[in-house]
Amino acid sequence: MLRIFRRASVGVAGLGLLLILLSPIIGEPLFEGTLWYIEPIAYIGGGVFIFGAIWAIAFYQNIARKNQLGVSDDRTWSQVTQDYFDTFAHDIGRPLRRILGKQREARALLNETGELSSKMISELLEEIENQAPNFRLMIENVRVLVDLEDRTAVPAVEPVDVAAIVRNVSDRYRPIARERGLDLSWWCEPSDFGLVYCDGSALDHVITNLVDNATKFADKHIEIRLTRTESTFLVTVWDDGKGISESHIPHVFDRGWTPEFSARAEKQSSGIGLFIASTLSERCGGKLLVESKQASDSTGVIDHHTTFNLSLPLDNRSKVSGR
Amino acid sequence: MTSKNKIGGGQKILVVDDEHMSDLMRSVLRKLEADGFTPIVVAPEGENITGDDYEVQTLFALETERPSAVLLDVRFGEYDSDRFKGLSILKSIVDFDGSMPVLMFTQYTQGPYRDTAVSASLSVSSSVDFIDKLASPEEVVLRLRRLIGSAPETIKIGSLFELDNENAAVYVINDGRRELIKEIQGMKLEILIELASAMYRSEGELVPFSRLERFSEGEDSRASLRVRIRELKVSLGKAVGREFGANELIFNVRNRGYRLVNPED
């Protein structure tokens, strides 16, 4: 494509020059004795030449600038940004790894020696450990946000063990849930779920954001359920939190929306997790829906909860290749 | 307790990471040892060590140590040339032994570089998984354990009970000694094996009713199952001289199924 543009710009300039040169031969004077005595074709040729020349100069200047920055022509903006981001992610991960390493060493030493530490020290060590998954998710969220800007990107097509992804996310969030006094269960039906074709990385990220959200709002229980129909598989993340009001439901997936936003309170999160989860689900050919209940029912049974239902095709090969 | 009696059963884990001396990696090595694994760290000697040195030493260790799995970093050093050296080492490992489980320790668990890593591994049939370097040592060892995949001969249920799969028996642990709980046999034992296997795979895994229905009798299968579970809890409780409450040891999760949890000492 770039080669075509480059040739076109040179071609237009060349055509303009040709028209100027040929004007005495192919043109005829319109108004003798006036400025238009000179061939109008020469004027037109001049205009075309100037346009083509400006186009070509701008084009070559842009290439020179990219070469200076070490940017290749055949890579998209998103790929270039991803490259920078990966360097950044590695650099931001380094101090975090050091902090976590020191914290785990200190905790092991305290456990081994049995020394009584002040409550604050133990709490600090716990807090550092508990914040690690938040950092992990934050770094990945920025990466996915960058990726979502690339409108031409298509989801990966790979055989994925969905049950393993759900299990991994559950294992990652169990310590956090336990620390917050929550019980986290997961299961799949059928138990031998098998492989599906989808974008495993995107799926992992969507489920992680949903479970992370549930750990913030659950009262006591969180459940992750994996089921399937003939053509789709469903991941349901349920929590027994106080629920979302009906008027807020349409905004749950808006970028930057948080419950605190409506309450005009201090934000506890950036409000991009659910936006990313929803956008990524749609990009993968699926749908993310939310259902919530706030009040007790007519029998007086308290049943407040929120359920996120993610449905994705069992096989995304035809959808992705059709794009 | 010897490492043979722990989850790892003394299995060797080859650790290939140029940052193996870092605090973060030390916590992983410590957890491996605590769970009964024997970590073997690949550490080439000399000056100006490169990724190639790790690759050579890894192959040598595979030959001499015969590990059960490999914990491998993707990135070696700070130079771009060694950015994906781990993938080249992975290829060598798989060429050497196509069935070797490898857990890749990397920041690239998601995004385009994970795809690079996956495509490198999918071209081979080895059992490869990826984990973020910021993961907790518990998560790393759990993933490694699942990757190795072999069902353990015994599953510990807290520090109180031990399930012996091979001999189909449940023991209570008393001052380090195992005593057989004779009452738990037949269907009760099978239910316990089903629940304990799920817990071993993942602590939060629930066994849905659909998978437990074969252990019930009569028209009301759930009621029948409830009775068996209660009997099972009573038998286990009697062995340790206590009564397990509704939310202890085995519990019903919102009428979806049952889950086994490690009992408190």
Task: Provide an overview of this structure.
The complex is a heterodimer of chains A (323) and B (265). Chain A has 323 residues and is α+β, with helices and mostly antiparallel strands. Chain A has helices at 2-26, 40-69, 77-113, 119-148, 162-179, 200-217, 259-263, 273-283, 317-321, and strands at 158-161, 183-188, 195-198, 221-228, 232-239, 287-293, 305-313. Chain A has three domains: 2-69; 77-148; 158-321, Heat Shock Protein 90 (2-Layer Sandwich). In chain A, helix 5 (162-179) packs parallel to helix 6 (200-217). With 265 residues, chain B is an alpha/beta fold. Chain B has two domains: 3-148, Rossmann fold (3-Layer(aba) Sandwich); 154-260, Winged helix-like DNA-binding domain superfamily/Winged helix DNA-binding domain (Arc Repressor Mutant, subunit A, Orthogonal Bundle), CATH 1.10.10.10. In chain B, 39% of the residues lie in helices and 20% in strands. In chain B, the strands form three sheets. Chain B has a five-stranded parallel beta sheet with strand order 2-1-3-4-5, sandwiched between helices. Chain B has a four-stranded antiparallel beta sheet with strand order 6-7-8-9, with helices on one face. Chain B has a three-stranded antiparallel beta sheet with strand order 10-12-11. In chain B, helix 1 crosses helix 5 and helix 2 (51-65) runs parallel beside helix 3. The mean pLDDT of chain B is 84.
